[in-house]
UniProtKB/TrEMBL annotation:
Key words of the record: Membrane, Transmembrane, Transmembrane helix
Localization per record: Membrane
Domain of life: Bacteria
Organism: Micromonospora coriariae
Keyword Membrane: yes
Membrane topology field: Multi-pass membrane protein
Residue ranges annotated for the Integral membrane bound transporter domain, each copy included: 49-172
Transmembrane segments: 36-58, 64-83, 88-108, 114-147, 159-179
Protein name (database record): Fusaric acid resistance protein-like
A GO cellular component entry from the record: membrane
InterPro entries attached to this UniProt entry: Memb_transporter_dom
Amino acid sequence: MFARVAPAESPGSPVGRLRSRLAKASRAAYRRFRTYLIIGVQAGLAAALAWVIAHQLLRIEEPTFAPGAAVAVIGASLARRALRTVELLLGIGVGIAAGDLLIALIGTGAWQTGIIVFLAVTGAAAARGTGLLMTQAGATAVLVATLTPANPDLELPRAINALVGGLVGLVVMLVLAPLNPLRTIRRVAGSALDLFARQMTACAEALANGDASQAEAVLDQMRNSESKLIQLREAVSAADEVAQFSPLRWRRRRAVSAYRDGVKHMERAYRNSRTLARRAGTALRDAEPVPPDLPAAIEEYGASVRLLHREFLAGEEPVQARDRALSAVRLAGEACRQEIRFSGTIVVSQLRTVTNDLLRATGVRRDKARHLVRRAAAGH
């Protein structure tokens, strides 16, 4: 009886796979919770303060939009919140202006509301406004067009609420509860670099095992990982904004600037690695010879990404990551001097490119990075 239960709970069984997925989802949820906890704290504090200021100090009877605007500033995106505050206020101004002008010309009603909103949104778009500006302009125009006849003095309190909420959101974000820019970057970048390293290892295994389907799976996974790059870019942008404008974080500006430059090059490395993975799959499907040094080189590059992650978290100079990346180029050079064909040579070429990107991410200047890669490729 017990012998039948064990296989049902083995890793390959439905129950085992379900448990594995639940554990993976739980770990991912915990990582997201840690990453965005400070955002929740900022949003709650900003909403409470905006309500108190609008209702208690300014005596606005309906202050609901003040905390809404504060939360919109903080929660719309991790990045460029100061700009989004300006967009929020501009959107309200555009909506009020369009609504007041058109009501005076064409009156109110269903079709009038549609025209007012259309012109407010397209006007914001013509001014190169973002989604937040256009949305706010349209929402304000709706309010003006539908409620102004019954509440002629509604526009000014709404504008004041928006101003209060936006300013409170900025004060909370930059003064009262600013995020730790380095901690934020390291946490998000660590997850992205760990995924990158695992994908490079999987690509190396596919080449070593001659498994074209595994190489294709790696490529699909890399294509589906764009959200990681977006999250990383937003985290770096938000950290840079805090370091530039928050007095409590000014001492972090130099370090954040270095990370900002490094992340830009790691994004390039990740995208260039997709070509590497695609050509690895092509080489396998075309039954091209795969010298053992080629998968070893890709595995070595994955190891360099892991080392970069560790040295990155420790705040150390990434010397080991650079050495392992150049070792990968040397191994790829050895593979190139053996029996290798068209797709294999492209894999080698892309490996040199991504190594150059990694060296740039560690702070190596462009000319020196190219020189180091050329020397390694020649076997030096």
